[in-house]
Amino acid sequence: MRARAPEITEALARVEQVWHRVLGSRDAPRALDAAHHDLDIALIGRVGYYVDAHAKGRPIVLLHGIHAAASAYDVKPLFDAFRGERPVYAPDLPGFGTSDRGPNQYCPMLYAKALKRFLVDVVTPREEPVDVVALSLTSEIAARVAIDSPHLFRTLTLISPTGLGSRAPRVDPARAARIERALEVPLWASPLYRVLTSRPSVKYFLDKSFHGRAPKAYVDHAVRTSRVHGAHHAPFAFVAGQLFTSDAREALYEQLRVPTLVLYDRDPYSDFGQLHALERHNRAVRAHRVPGTRGLPHFERCHEVVQTIRDLQEETRRGEESEIRA
Question: InterPro entries in the record, alphabetically (predicted)?
Answer without folding.
Answer: AB_hydrolase_1, AB_hydrolase_fold
